Amino acid sequence: MQSIPVDMARLGSTMCVVPPEPRMTPDGEVRKDRDGNPLWVVGVSVRQATTRRADVIDVAVSGQPQGITEGARITVVDLVATSWEIDGRRGISFRASAVRPEVAPPAVTTGGSSGRGKSAAGGDA
């Protein structure tokens, strides 16, 4: 299996479309990473910045992501794609070191008052 780092800067936006849930084995057990931490999976909508095309990928992460809800803009940290093949089936799985809520940029205020001029009632301020 080959792991390929994904350049998140080339993607336009990422959004949670399926909230975090434990990643299960076919036997109904919670999967664990190499360190014994439970794995969680988040359904992520990924849109390329230059197109209207969007894809949904399942991203596995160690430990339960906090503050992630359906429809929320998110940040995926250290995303890696890994190709796999088992019993004649093949695909690509995605893993990240973290999935976090996107931090909104600070609000920009416009049209501030300098304290001089007319009041709303028409008189001098």
Structure, explained:
- It is a single chain.
- Strands 1-6-7-4-3-2 form a 6-stranded mixed β-sheet, with no helix packed on it. Strands 5-8 form a two-stranded antiparallel ribbon.
- The chain has no helices and 8 strands.
- The protein has one domain (3-101): OB fold (Dihydrolipoamide Acetyltransferase, E2P) (Beta Barrel).
- β6 and β7 form a beta hairpin.
- It is an all-beta fold and 125 residues long.
- It is globular.
How would you summarize the topology of this molecule?
Blueprint: E1 3-5, E2 11-22, E3 39-48, E4 54-62, E5 74-77, E6 80-86, E7 89-95, E8 98-101
Parallel strand pairs: 4-7
Antiparallel strand pairs: 1-6, 2-3, 3-4, 5-8, 6-7
Please describe the structure with a list of short key phrases separated by commas or semicolons:
125 residues, mainly beta, OB fold (Dihydrolipoamide Acetyltransferase, E2P), 6-stranded mixed β-sheet, two-stranded antiparallel ribbon
CATH architecture: Beta Barrel
How would a textbook summarize the main sheet? Answer: 6 strands, mixed
* CA-CA gap between termini: 71 Å
Strand order of the largest sheet: 1-6-7-4-3-2
CATH top level is Mainly Beta
| Helix residue percentage | under 10%
Estimate the mean pLDDT confidence.
Answer: 87
Q: Given the C-alpha coordinates, what overall shape results? A: globular
Number of domains: 1
Q: What is shown here, in short?
A:
The chain is built from no helices and 8 strands. It is mainly beta.
